[in-house]
Write a structure and sequence with these properties.
This protein is mostly helical and 197 residues long. Helix content is 73%, strand content 0%. Helix 3 crosses helix 4 (77-95).
Length: 197
């Protein structure tokens, strides 16, 4: 079921989840567009393999669609997606009989292992680079992005908070996502070469 007349890019994650649970393909597409690049980046940071990273993200989204009606409404969408991805990565590693080599990536009990420490370093590098790119956004664009993502406000609420129009808030968010998606692609290359041994 697809609802016409709805600007899905302006919906909050909570609203998208409501539409998703009602079998709305457009809501699913917006969730994919909103999160697929970040999820791929996270998967690549764990797996260090482009093909495996793409596959695990695609499979995760397929499962999200299949299980859409069982997702609890109170779930934080981004948190739910990253947990689902983490589980998918673990299953892929298990399937490849690499659990013993990479278990430290997913277990706090092995926090002192070299593998886990190396993963933490990579994640911190990656997070720092993304934070830097967000900080480099134009002030108003950054403010819109942070209110939408960190406080999960709607475009209408962001507009009221910043004293701008709702359409301006939506436009600034779209531009911010476009810039960050481009930058994240470059960051992946940088992180890869920083960690080549």
């Amino acid at each position: 079921m697809t609802n016409t007349g709805i600007s899905y890019a302006t919906l909050t994650d909570d609203d998208l989840l409501i539409h998703l649970k009602n079998d709305d393909h457009s809501a699913f597409t917006e969730i994919f567009n909103r999160y697929s690049t970040l999820l791929y980046a996270h998967a690549f940071n764990k797996l260090r393999n482009e093909s495996d990273s793409r596959d695990v993200v695609q499979e995760m989204f397929m499962k999200i669609w299949q299980k859409r009606q069982t997702i609890e409404q109170g779930n934080n969408l981004s948190g739910y997606l990253f947990i689902a991805l983490r589980n998918g990565i673990f299953n892929l590693i298990k399937h490849k009989n690499l659990v013993s080599a990479y278990a430290g990536n997913f277990s706090k009990a092995n926090a002192d292992s070299g593998i886990y420490t190396d993963t933490l370093i990579r994640e911190k590098q990656f997070a720092a680079m993304i934070a830097a790119e967000i900080a480099n956004l134009p002030p108003r664009m950054r403010a819109v992005f942070e209110l939408r993502r960190h406080e999960n406000l709607s475009n209408k609420e962001v507009a009221a908070r910043l004293g701008i129009t709702e359409s301006t808030a939506a436009d600034q968010m779209k531009k911010a996502l476009r810039i960050l998606k481009t930058k994240i692609g470059l960051i992946l290359i940088i992180v890869h070469y920083l960690n080549v041994k």
